[in-house]
């Protein structure tokens, strides 16, 4: 076992989370990838990459992801924070590890974007002799790309997002310790939702109870911005939101809310039943449960994401339900990103196969849905899984639903 959730508070009587080490190791990991790729600098806009490099916990505005905050990193030295004007004073007062920070506009209006590149970013890059060479960028709208071409024509923009994915792939010991704590909170959130699931309540009420627990325990946000509580026929096919639908006797009910703590996500899902399940509902649940366990068994060094996917599909196929698997990947990487590569069971064009390596973390989430089942015929079970030197370690601990197991 790699560890356990010791508690989210700082105390004087126990060593818990070495946050200065966390920040240092994250920057060093990204700088290593910069040097390996022969890239002269890295400019990031994605929320998780900014958090990874600077530890900025910012106000997030709906629909403005990648438009509010950024960070610049060179192969050596500290990152430069580029943040919303609403964050700059907080950053200067409370983030002593950030030596340089600049206020920036929301990166949408073309004129403001142009002004940012010409009058803020260009001088910062010139001071570092980076107005030519190769600059990795993880995201950017067309206004930003055009402004970069106008004001920094000698600078080649290259893919910085792949670089950051490589930097974040293998978690450090401190990251894993924090993910343990996220899972403890995510377990509590899931358990609260399960405890509040009973006939006559609306899906949104259940989600609201779970979110109260999330914030009460110090969580930052749910794994999904739109908490996922789907009951009865809303799981056949899955409605991946919570609605005003009333839950009823004989309904299956799926909970997928999870938690983020200290910047790291836990993605945990459970299916329960209100009242007594039908035989068909039990058959579907048992197939998904056995598929999940078969997949986890393959999640170790020497096996690949394809091996885990095949094990899940084959086991569910043994129950005659392989054709009813949800048309989405079966698992995904997770960490400071709520959903990140590599993927398990991805079948879209360009899908890749990755070998499992120690300190990778995944959320494994097989989902089967069968139409025309009274009370719903959709089941998903989702666990957080850490790859170790031997057998995988399941980090989530919420009980499975024994009433649904044959």
Question: What report would you give on this structure?
Answer:
By secondary structure, this protein is an alpha+beta fold. The protein has two domains: 19-168, Creatinase/prolidase N-terminal domain (Creatine Amidinohydrolase, Chain A, domain 1), CATH 3.40.350.10; 170-404, Creatine Amidinohydrolase (Alpha-Beta Complex). 34% of the residues lie in helices and 18% in strands. The protein is built from ten helices and 18 strands. A six-stranded mixed β-sheet has the order 4-3-2-1-5-6. A five-stranded antiparallel β-sheet has the order 13-12-14-17-18. Strands 7-8-11 form a three-stranded antiparallel β-sheet, with helices on one face. Strand 2 and strand 3 form a beta hairpin. Helix 7 packs across helix 8 (203-216) and helix 9 runs antiparallel to helix 10. The two termini are 30 Å apart.
Topology:
Elements (H helix, E strand, L loop, with lengths): L18 H18 L4 E4 L2 H8 L15 E4 L6 E5 L3 H7 L5 E5 L5 H18 L5 E5 L4 H10 L3 E5 L1 H9 L3 H23 L7 H14 L11 E4 L20 E5 L2 E3 L2 E3 L2 E5 L5 H19 L7 H14 L12 E3 L6 E5 L16 E4 L2 E3 L8 E3 L2 E4 L6 E2 L12
Parallel strand pairs: 1-5, 3-4, 5-6
Antiparallel strand pairs: 1-2, 2-3, 7-8, 8-11, 9-10, 12-13, 12-14, 14-17, 15-16, 17-18
* CATH level-1 class of the largest domain: Alpha Beta
- Sheet-strand content, in percent, reads 15-25%
Q: Could you tell me the CATH topology label of the largest domain.
A: Creatine Amidinohydrolase
Query: What is the CATH architecture assignment of the largest domain?
Result: Alpha-Beta Complex
Could you estimate the helical fraction of the residues in percent? Answer: 25-40%
Question: What kind of oligomer do you see?
Answer: single chain
Q: Main sheet: which strands, in order across?
A: 4-3-2-1-5-6
Please tally the β strands and state the result.
18
Give the ordered list of helices and strands. HEHEEHEHEHEHHHEEEEEHHEEEEEEE
Uncertain spans: none
Average of pLDDT: 96
State the end-to-end CA separation.
30 Å
Which structural class do the helices and strands define? alpha+beta
